Amino acid sequence: MTELCDLSAVELRRRIGTKEVSPIELLDACLARIEAVNPALNAVVALDTKRARAEAEAAEKAVRQGDDLGPLHGLPVGIKDLTATEGLRTTYGSRIYENNVPEADEQIVADIRGAGGIILGKTNTPEFGAGANTRNGVYGATGNPFDPELTCGGSSGGSAVALATGMLPLATGSDLGGSLRTPAGFCGVVGFRPTPGTVPNDMRTSALLSLPVDGPMGRSVADAALLMSALVGEDPRDPLTRPLDPSLLDAPQVFDLSSLRVATSADLGCAPVDKDIDATFRARMAKISGFFSECSARDPDLGPAHEVFEILRGVIFIASHKDRVEQHRDILGPNVLENTERAYKYSAADVAWAHVEQTNLYRRFVDMFDEVDILIAPACAVSPFPHAEWSVKEINGAPMETYMRWLALSYGITLTLHPTVVIPCGLDHRGLPFGIQIVGRYQCDAEVLAIALALERALAGDKDLARPVPDLAKLKT
């Protein structure tokens, strides 16, 4: 029997509006699920139960009175612990801030509240989001819902796990080199990396650098799009903000897959990919190629993507963490230290070169979309590994040059600036979630969501391709 907290966010919001579901009952269902499975996973790391209950009661009253209801009215939402929440502990996964309780919400949190969402808790993240393995010195590691000894990915790992297990119907994520997409792939949920500037951020240190973005996560494309509708907007404090696309405020329309020209790439032409993941991806593409008008293997030309990403990411780390490294070296984790210090080896000439090369890469990618409508690639290069290991050390026997190299499938797409959705696509060779990323045209965020929705529905009709669900009974014990 499906429990209340296992229903989709879209269905829950519909039932709240028709008075079939009480926001208080939904809150209680989420809290019960958190109590039952979170001890095994450590995904939700701080709760705001008292305020959430008061807001759920107010939400129920508003429904009874016939008030206008926001798109997220009465829905509990998890906020990644890199985002400030008024009155709720926000640590950024760092011992520097382990007792930090912000006095105000960041804008995306305020927007979620303004849309009727109820902030129930914070979801775990690696320190300052560094590293695709959700573990830190404040809360410890978050386990994968399909095997708690394995990583859930990162840095939006807590959000992905909370969604996969029904602890929350919606949760926020953020993405630089795959921080939103890798956890979605590892946990069997949906994550959307929008075009930079679509979701404003009023707190980013390096606001003119377009690599980091905030984005929504859900158990389905429709759920992620629902949360997206509350996050989009214009904010002059974010210089990358662009005019609002009003179609992002509505539910995505299902796209006609048979009209699409599709390129597929198992490794983007440059990424190390485990041979079994490669084989799984090729088998899946062979199985679904008939959905499309055209479908053929084609690697994009990402040029010197590895070096470009390392340099530009280094600029962000120095801008964000230089003072922290100088003042708190003794309590910072290895990822922040190593990334910041490695960045100092680059010169101004290196940074200028990286900007030129990224521009060239971006333009080549735009040109590719004159000939194809979407690009599909694996979400992750490997199957989930033990969270006791900081990162992947080798793939197919070849050592990784940096701890980020195994994430080239995601950071290669980051450099293109194009919107990307990760959706589940069955299980991999080890019986763990397997995801694909769907890359659409630049600034065509609504279109890529519509395509992802149509493909998700097509996959749901095949038990081998549908979204996998973790064994909750096993987690409860």
CATH class: Alpha Beta
Number of helical regions: 14
| Structural class by sheet pairing and helices | alpha+beta
Side-by-side strand order of the widest sheet: 1-3-2-8-10-9-16-17-13-11-12
The CATH architecture name reads: Alpha-Beta Complex
**Named CATH topology:** Amidase signature (AS) enzymes
What kind of sheet is the major sheet? Answer: 11 strands, mixed
Question: Which regions contain 5 or more consecutive residues with pLDDT less than 50?
Answer: none
Please give the alpha-carbon distance between the first and last residues. 19 Å
Shape: globular
Cα-atom radius of gyration: 21 Å
| Beta-strand percentage range | 15-25%
- The count of DSSP E runs of length 2 or more, i.e. the number of strands, is 17
Mean pLDDT value = 97
The count of domains is: 1
Helix content: 25-40%
The named CATH superfamily: Amidase signature (AS) domain
Could you explain how this protein is built, in words?
Helix 5 runs parallel beside helix 6, helix 9 crosses helix 10 and helix 9 crosses helix 11. The chain has a single domain, classed as Alpha-Beta Complex (Amidase signature (AS) enzymes), CATH 3.90.1300.10. By secondary structure, the chain is α+β, with helices and mostly antiparallel strands. It is globular and about 60 Å long. It has an eleven-stranded mixed beta sheet, with helices on both faces. The protein has a two-stranded antiparallel sheet with strand order 4-5. A two-stranded antiparallel sheet has the order 6-7. It contains 14 helices and 17 strands. Helices cover 37% and strands 16% of the residues.
